[in-house]
## 1
Amino acid sequence: MGARVGLALTFGATPVATVWPPNAVLLASLLVAPTSVWWILLLAALPVHLVVELSGGVPAPMALSWFVSNGLEALLGAALVRHFLPGRPRLDTVRAFGVFVIGATFLATCLTSFLDAALVAWNGWGESPYWTVWRIRFLSNVLATQTIVPIVLAIDGRLLATIRIAPARRQLEAVALGAALLLVCLVTFWLPEGVRHGGPALLYAPIPLLLWAAVRFDLLGISLCLGAVTIMAISGAVRGAGPFATLDAAESTLSLQLFLFLTGVPLSLLATTTEERRRAERKAAESERLLSLTIKTANIGIWTADLETGLFGADEVLTGMIGEPTAHADSYNALLDHTLVGRRALPGERTSGSANGEAFFPDHELELQHPDGTFCWIITRGTLLRSPDGNPFRLMGIAMDVSERKRIERTLREHDERMSLVATTADIGFWSVELATREAWMSDHCYAMLGIDPGTPAISALEYFLPRSTIGETIARIEQQFGRHGTADDESCIKRPDGTTRWIASSARLERSLAGHPIRIIGVSRDVTHQRQSEREAAERRLALAHLSRVATVGELTAAIVHEVGQPLGAILLNAQVAQRMVTASEIDVTELQSVVDDLVRDAKRAGGVIGPLRDLLRRNESAREALDLRAVVQDALELARSELTKQRIEVSVNMPDEKSLVMANRAQLQQVLLNLILNARDAINSASPERRQLLVTVTKGVDSVVSVGVADSGGGFAREHLGHVFEPFFTSKSNGLGLGLSVSRSIMLDHGGDLRAENVEGGALLQVILPESSGRPAPRPAAAERLGVTPLPLTQPPPGA
């Protein structure tokens, strides 16, 4: 269709059309299509071009020659535009329009016109000379490119939506513009010379309407209007009408082309400039609205000070902070003085500023009075504007109310001071380490606790509170070290640079982000040296008390011990005297003497068997623990108390398992506990009738890998109101007792990971020593005797085999 339009708008004696649309159509197709399909478009245009040209009477060689020059023009123009405007070009900026005019309209058309004119001369087509063909071809293609391509590039998917949502008055305006332009073009270009009046001056009639289109309807509007004017003007001249009909064909063609081109390019540039400015104004308005919203949201006030008149201006945000400038001039003068850092800029002062005539001042904070009488903190920043000759004429700035920030800072500072006071009073230090950067921080009290210089890097000092291996580990390894709850406790003994030793207890927690990723470790550390010293002193006193308790227990057995030791010593003395007489006799009976010596050895071992356990019992070696057979320890304790129990006519029954019952304990302390229980049972049995003077000792293996020794008596048991206090220090039901035996015994058992319990049974009291087996775990303390597998025996009847 473009080729037929071009042929139809060609003067008969001219071999080249006045305007040739096919090249512009092909150029527009290449500009809107991907470069990968350009060769397809060029090949697809060939058969159409040949059909049109051949049907118009153009020889085949000439038709092929024109396809080469026309295709080369479109290809070169598209390549130049795409090089500077990647992607689908839009002629909505002055730069883009300039690239299109210079590259596609002028340069590509100019270069290919030389080839086109040469091909016309070579084929002998037409009678026009070479330069005339070049000029007409160049101007016809320039006019077509400048008229058609902007229309194609301006039409996209948004055009229909823009037209559909345009206001009705806008649509009516476009219809009115089109109708008026059509009417003016008919009068100007289609009426014969004898009918119309006004001469060449009528060429200016479409200009106001074209300006209307350029200003109101952007590039698309002016392109459509220019296209309509171009078609009306050329078709009128071809028909012999209009102002160009009086000229010959060559002059008419040249005049038409120059008129249309010189009219179209400035108007298109005006439309592009108008559209770009309108777009810039929209962006500026949007930016201004966004800036205004941001400023109001951030509670930022804007103020100005005219240095010539001394008048202040302030927006509503700033007037809400410190009041109106007329009513609170002192506040605004203070704002100005702080912005200028104590220096007022005089109207006639000349200062050196920046290249754009502005001088900026740093932020300053000041306290101003609020209209309601309260005070607020304002942070201000200003810029001094100067005229081109360097004289300052206006100061502008912003002010922001930072009273809330000041209040928060003051609150945080007071909180930090209180926390510092509490930490110092409680001897607590705080520290933290960032896992991503390995940056550490410690409070001043941590440095004082460690006795090191506060300037020491925290990451190196932190190893006293947290192992360095933890800091250097991966995140996964650190999570594993802190466990499921994300906490860890540690206590270590450190040696400070001054040579003193301190005990430091630390508690750390692994903090996580909202997404659950570990981000830092925070912790507190406390100097527990005095506490550990007190605990050690208390432990020493407790051991000394236990030793004294053992000595007192042995003191209760003094008479029995003397009796037990006296018998073997008497026998030793008697046998020694017999041996002495036998030695002085004239004849020695060796057999008899050997018997006497054997008796001496036996009695000596018997005395040693009594004294050895007593020596072990009185020795202070509470820290040594070994695997003991509980049955043997019970037998030794009963052996030590045997004489005392026999003297009191107490019947003793022992019930033990056949297999060993191994426990990890200190022999002396365990014997002390058992002797204490046996002697307490003896004292309780003394008040019983002779037929019920019974003592039952039972060794039992219970559940949870524990072993128990039950000492049950027939003394009537504990009073109900005393049962809950039997293990309290200095509590006793004896008239001559101190109340320390059971208390010390229970503390010994607890120290061994076991327990000592008391309860009433039928006919008396039961005291149970509970210990973990050497291969088991410590027994749980708050468990009942039955739960541990220990069942006390009733004492109404003597046990079997008593």
## 2
Amino acid sequence: MVKEDAVKLRTSGIVAGLVIAGLFALGVGWSGTNGDRPPGAKGDKKVAKAHTDGATSASIPTFSTEDLARTGIFYAGGQYEGPPGKETMGGDAYVVVWVPKQIKHPYPIVYVHGAGQTATDWEQTPDGRPGWAYYFANLGYVQYLVDSPARGRSPYVPSIDGDLTIRTAANLEEIFTAAAKKGDFPRAHLHNQFPGTGLMGDPVFDNFAKTQVQFLQFGVAGTVGQDELTHRALVALLDAIHSPVILLTHSQGGTPGWLTADSRPNLVKAIVTVEPAAPPIKGVDTAKVAYNPGAGGLSWGVSGTPITYDPPVKDPAELQPVLEEKSDAPGDVVPCYVQKEPAHKLVNLEKIPVVYLSAEGGYHRESDPCLAKWLNQAGVHTQFVKLEDVGIHGNGHEMMLEKNSDEIARFIGSWIDKNVPQKDKPSMAAPPSAIPTYATENIARQGFFYAGGRYEGEAGKEVMGDAMYTEVWVPRQVRHPYPIVFFHGNGQTGAVWRQTPDNRAGWAYYLVSQGYTVYMVDYPGRGRSPYVPGIDGTLGIRTALDLETIWTAPATSGGNFPRMKLYTAWPSDSPKKGMMGDPVFDYFTKGQVEFVNDQEALTVPAGVALLDQIGKPVILISHSQGGGMGFDVANLRPKLIAGMVAIEPGGPQIGGVDTAKVAYTRVNPNSWGLTTMPFKFDPPISSPSELKVHLVASERPGDEVGCYLQDEPVHKLVSFENMRILSISAEGTYHRVFDACIPKWLNQAGAKDDFVRLEDVGIHGNMHEMFLDRNSEEIIKFIDGWINKNLK
């Protein structure tokens, strides 16, 4: 499908993105109120009542946070890449931290996911049950859930990190979800634990497909590669934790797990690995149960890159691999490559106990025993567990998402208890001060879901796209009738609402403490929402210099707009404040991710689907790029918008502006007044050319341009008549040049938009990213006050 066709489908066929949401509303799929506790956990009657009182709809999964005391996020690793003046931050990993109310184990669990996936694997299942992270929170483990670099909420740097690919629905069916029906490997018929039919069109499968994101292609010449990127970030993570951990790795995540343990053996107490990347030496044709010709396996035995052996090895050929004469299980397992004796030892892994889980009905079984055999021969004490041998039947490769996932988690917990001596005090597992966490005392329930989404591509090669990851927090006491929905700006994700780059709690924590249910999205094609290569458009990412000049240090890094010297609230006292080398700035850049060139076409249908799934009016808080898309969504679903807060929304709405000269450069003939998408007017219009406009002189020449308004008689914006809107502009922002114009346009067209220049209400020194500034809490308190006065 060419991009133009994809855009037409997105913008004209919004209903296609709502089918799955409708199924959920009928009770198919997610089940957020049942079975959300590990065995033996206590119920929470107060929380349950708040949940059923209408904090979220029945189609939106949330789970009790009763076992959690604190949560947080941070970015591990990362470095600037690119030539001077064009550096971009990359290679860092987004990490979610969960701290239980009672820490019972001295060693945290660090989760490393597989290819095409993110840390959402560990949080919940596609049929709406709590994931392994909830199980181990109940057992008292501190946990770190990682999005591997170049994946999810960790930035991907185009032109540096390599080419992207994504799995088709057919591939997911064959190897992950419906192997008994579609798989072509010997044990496929034994797979029966994936919930639902496992086929495209089943709501559970479709939900699973939305979590499958793009990933780096394997073995692209000239790139670092996923294994090494993840290895580097994990080493940085373990150094930050600064105490021993248990690595829990899956599939592609297995290789960086071995490499990380090799680099930091004293910081790894044990490894639990779930069907890790395999086999040693050569790749396997799973249909034929035979080795492929040529290379393709793990040339260093457990990895494709160097790892420490004793005697030392400079070239993998020195391992002298030999193929066994026959398989231990002919027809199910290939013969194994092992080292010619005497074997080189993986000396840094020798003291680390390993349990290696292999599913009864998975394609990995064909080579799983070979990697376990290689590890044991190399001195790594590896317990290879065929799940059926311990009474756990019917699983495939994605066992953490399957119907008996708790049974497998229980086995893992028992293995850890038996094989990892608990000699240290549990308090040792508490995150150090350098890793930010915040009390969950105001959050009763949390969860995530994907709004919208549809299959794209030709028959047999469909890929799920256009889905929007949405994180939800439900307060312990719901005190406001309208939930908050956050739309973020360009190059960012929903993470910006969780905390600031100097490690203060973000706006989401404040609002949930005030009794609002809060939804935080990642736009389609960004963050934890899938991007479909070849369909969703080209990707870009901002350089550090871009960020400095427009947002964080305009006056000292070459910015050029009138009010830039008034920006003083960047939350750092570094001599390089707001620039590369400022620790707060460097941390900020780690959360700036790639973005598509036509975000509006992807996001608006997903935004409509989100409001339909929430099913009641919301307050939409939008920022920058999210502002225009927020107006588009409100235009299509006005009855589901109780009010809006527009923080420096994208603009100007009619003509382009040179912010340095405070002057218009052109008029956009495709603008419908707020964006280039059609809006409903009264009297109706069929083309933007029917909007006759004139330029009104500026009230503040030199700082602000004049504004285009409609000629009389005015066409009214049908969806916005009497809608209450708060528009905010910061004191030291380049947006001030045109921020006054959208509120004037809206008010003339029938809305009730209060335009506030922050300095006029005593809030000084801010820029475009005001929710990250030193005085961010002052601003959200002002917004909350406006909501309480105007949107009751």
## 3
Amino acid sequence: MIVTPAKTVPALVGECVDAGVRAAVVISAGFKELGPEGAALELEIQKQLRRGSMRVIGPNCLGIMTPHTGLNATFAQDMALPGNVAFLSQSGALLTAILDWSFQEQVGFSAIVSTGSMLDVGWGDLIDYFGNDPATGSILLYMESVGDARSFLSAAREVALRKPIIVIKAGRTAAASKAARSHTGALTGSDEVFDAALRRCGVLRVSSVSDLFYMAQVLSKQPRPHGPKLMILTNAGGPGVLATDHLLSDGGELAPLSNATTESLNALLPPHWSHGNPIDILGDAGSERYSKALEIAANDPNSDGLLVILTPQGMTDPATVAEGLIAQAATHGKPVLASWMGGKTVAKGVEILNAANIPTFSYPDTAARAFTYMWKYTYNLRGLYETPSLGDAADSLELAESQAKSFLEIIRATGRTILTETESKRVMAMYGITTVDTRLAASESQAVECAEAIGFPVALKLNSETITHKTDVGGVKLNLQNREDVVRAFREIEKSVAEKFAANDFLGVSVQPMVKLDGYELILGSSVDPQFGPILLFGSGGQLVEVYGDRALALPPLNSTLAVRMMEQTKIYRALQGVRGRPAVDMPGLESALIRFSRLVIEQRWIKEIDINPLVATPERVIALDARIVLQDPSVAEDQLPRSAIRPYPLRYVSPWQGKNGMQALIRPIRPEDEPGMVKFHETLSDRSVYLRFFHVEKLSSRVAHANLLRKCCIDYDREMALVAERQTFQGAAPEILGVGRLTQKPGAREAEVAVLVADPYQRCGLGSELFGRLIQIGREEKLQRITATILPENMGMRILATRQGFQVMQDEDLSAIHVALDLQEVDA
């Protein structure tokens, strides 16, 4: 624990590193929060840390507390109660307030961590740690800044599948990013981007501190809903309406009553019951009517959850109704929430429900909000465990990446940062995004020539590097039928620009054929967020794009599943699927366009902003009518270019291989859609092969369970690299997986563990050695410092592979395992 003046801290940290101290908490303030002098002190601390492996929490923090061990390393006076919630906060003042509140509410913690400035240990490190902490059931975060976005998202995606991560972040109403030279740049704001990032990694965001703890409780007690439809049962109309208002405004839905439910309720309830959802069983309902109505409502197949509201009435016993609710809650696999409204009268019922792990709320609107949060949490998690398909965009597109990069470098050499519409469309076309034929014309005569070459009717649009919204200056002329129309349109555009702007704002026009708009105008764009890097935007397009504000944001890269999820978040999505007699648009083509566009964004890092507006989707095709690309300033160094917060598929590690016997295979990083192939791969393994790899014989059914293979196929390439070797057995069949090699990095360290497993029919043909060697080379390219492996003594094949690659061998004293290690590079001093 370091609690000394800021100027003394770097030297003290250095002494700790020399003494072999493993960790420190720096409570001292006076660092970057004070300006350049304090920031320089933080750089000195980081320089000392690079000399060893010590980790630091802080500086400028309250400290850490672990109630289960009795450690209070904070300057808060009282020890928190023990519990299963890890609370991590950037605000020390908020943390002390919550600590004080927790005693009154009897809320316990597995740990409390004040993160401070996060000079070293950040959100990713803490999420990793508490994700593996058996005493922690939920992880709650109060955030003011994200810090290392890639580390945060990487850890959250890994841990969210096991434990709820719930976030409240300050700054929700912060001003959007400064207006940029594209629609997308003007539309994206940091808070919207943060929401998109949390959706991508399965994290739930709430809007109040009370909701933070409500949801930790609810998610630990009840199953997650499979959908947004809630059934509400009440003995008072007003509370039911209040719950409905909040449910619908927060994105939930009322479950429609099935015919069977309606008939059963008609037979049970008085004639004046509500005959719909909410089910109002009326104020004179006794405990027996309540219990029977509960049974009917809970059995309705249309609902994803049940909220039961009780107001104290003379003929209703809250405790008896609570007992009846418990009986129903345990049998249907749906979340059940309760709002027992009142004080002393309902206290016994509340006690009974809480003891049975049914969350209770004093007010029904709070309960309805909790259900919508549960559904949002489910929706976010589905993005992690649904097996996606890359569709027809799964081809490598390596040629497109190289061609586009060369093309952009040529433009950058001229010093320009804005591409013409023709140049922008050329980049889109390289990635397989269909664009309309567009030709540039600097004069009237050239415009006429282009129009005649394309064929009438045509459209003329202003060509300018400075004017974004062409329609605002009369810069778009449509449906021009002949050369006279083209000349007149050219002159009108030129005159309009001259009256409002400088002469160099008019560079001529672009000429393109008229496209029949028998579909929908969309926008597809990207801009760079300061924290999360490139961000994608999709929504309703056209001239009124800012007015409609119908948009969704997402982090690249996309696959088919993620592309659909992005579209689902817009209002226009329903229309795209067909509505009121209009046919659906080319949805596979639209998915492919989004996937290819996301590839373009993450691969061409010189691009700062892109707009395709409009992107027209019809039943027959998806075509870009207008496009605009803005490049990063030439002064930006290549190593300073923004990178995507989620690492894309590493194409660089895809290459063919030929074995000793002439057998050919493709070795590439694993993908989520490899799960079916992995099932067949495990079917080829003998018990001995399984034992040598996993140190015990695990049943096939366990090895190929979806939850197990999900974690092995849907990996974070920043944390783990898994290579599969596959070969095409015959045309039209799915490739056969022959072997798998895995390099798993240890959290918070530049060290990884390597393992290789080859199907029994393909052992002893050099494949294991090839996978092993490639993983070592990947470790070098990923700048790992050390690779280790643990091998059973009888696994002679792996022992020989390790020895050939130069691994140092160490054996356990009890001879149960052999540990090998290979140092790849010296620690950077």
